[in-house]
Amino acid sequence: MAEVCLRDATPGDADVLAELHARSRAVYYGAGGHQVAAVPDERYRETWRSMVADARLTVLVAALGEDIAGVITLDLNRVFPTNAPHETRVRLAGIFVEPSQWSSGVGSALMARFISIARQTDAVGEVDVWERNSRAIRFYERHGWTRDGTSRPGPAGADYVGFVHRCS
Questions:
Q1: How does strand 160-166 pair with strand 124-130?
Q2: Residue 165 has what pLDDT?
Q3: CA 127 vs CA 42, 64, 83, 150: distances in Å
Q4: Quick one: which of 51, 28, 47 has its CA closest to 38?
Q5: How far is residue 114's CA from residue 2's CA, in Å, rounded to a whole number?
Q6: How distant is the alpha carbon of residue 90 from its chain centre?
Q7: How far apart (Å, rounded) are the C-alpha atoms in residues 53 and 30?
Q8: Can you give the pTM of this predicted structure?
Q9: Of 5, 13, 45, 99, which is most buried by a Cβ count within 10 Å?
């Protein structure tokens, strides 16, 4: 496998990221019994364009050669709600890997960068994971994340459950 290269997302990446995200979520939601579109619509694409352009967010891509294989979005500025407003938190707003690259090291490379950034900012990592996404839950647990006891409603009658990473 080619070396994973991490870089900041550019505006030109946004549509590719929307497509990657849609494919990834269609697979993991489908595995949990919830069907979603594997192709992004224009509103979905615009959301990615906005996130890439938002200077308050950090959007990093993982590239294998010229191909984007993964993406991670970090929120150090409380753009998204936090589960613990009294703590310094960095929210992992999303990490998505091309399904054909799952278990290849792409996700782990993105996660290592997230943990490094959280350590540098002396923050607790925070993420919500759909409770039926057992593959993602195992991934987070392998990387030192633990449940924090929070949850919020999710699709198909399944909650999103909160996880934290104490990055010290």
A1: antiparallel
A2: 95
A3: 26, 25, 9, 10
A4: 28
A5: 21
A6: 12
A7: 30
A8: 0.94
A9: 13
